[in-house]
Amino acid sequence: MMIRPRFLAIGLLTLAAGCSDSVRPLFVDGVRISADSAHLTIGQSVTLEALALDSRGNPLPERGAFIEWRSTQPGILSLSDSAGSAVTALADALGSSMVETEIGRGSARVPVYVFPAGLVELAIEPIGIRLAVGEALDIQGRLLDSAGASIEPAGFRLSWGFSDDTVALLTGQSTQARLFGRSAGTGRLTFVVNNRRVTVDVMVTN
Q: What is the per-residue DSSP string for 22-84?
């Protein structure tokens, strides 16, 4: 009469062992956000989505309701519905802010840049750049609106780049740059404003 209970106990232990993997809790170890960065003008908004991940990078969509969001600069970028798998970020002022999200042991962040409205085109002057070795040339970068008029650079992120510093040495700040010819050859000069860029060919002669 005592044998049946012992068989029953063994059967229950076997069943529990077989099910242990399927009922084991899944912990959040990472978060993936739908964008690497965002660029807005004042009054624009962007919706970002986040996906919780386990330690192997597998998605855990059922944990989305527990994701929390924050803006590091709420005066520049405000968030609505800041709990859940999606959030809407609204640009309120010029500048930049990080949007951060966190759940469990996972976290992620993306930069959001807010710049003035109206930028349509970029230009570099002079158009054809040719200089001699030992010569310096001043260069102007221009920000243009839809009518071709210049826009003030305040509030934009500006940078310059040159493809080969053995040919020419570049110095630049804001919309002003200078090239100094170092050796005969060619290169490409790039003017970058936020996520826009314009490039021109440069020739240095003896």
A: HHSPPPP-EEEES-S-EEEETT-EEEEEEEEE-TTS-B-GGGGGG-EEEES-TTTEEEES-BS
Interval 30-56: pLDDT, tens? 899 999 999 888 899 999 999 989 888
Edge-to-edge order in the sheet of strand 196-205? 129-132, 196-205, 185-193, 158-162
Q: Which residues of 64-100 are buried (b: 16+ CB within 10 A; e: fewer)?
A: beebebebebeebbbbeebeebebebbbbeeebbebb
With beta carbons less than 8 A apart as the criterion, state whether 167 and 204 touch: yes
**Residue 55, CB-side half-sphere exposure with 13 Å CA sphere:** 3
pLDDT band for 17, please (50, 70, 90 cuts).
very low
CB-side neighbour CA atoms (13 Å) of 24: 9
pTM passes above 0.85: no
H or E element: which one contains 20?
helix 3-23
Q: Distance (Å, rounded) from C-alpha 139 to C-alpha 123?
A: 11
Its sign, for the CA torsion 100, 101, 106, 109, is: negative
Two structure tokens written together for 164: 């080969």
Going by C-alpha positions, the residue among 29, 69, 74 that lies closest to residue 48 is: 69
Higher pLDDT pick, 25 / 159: 159
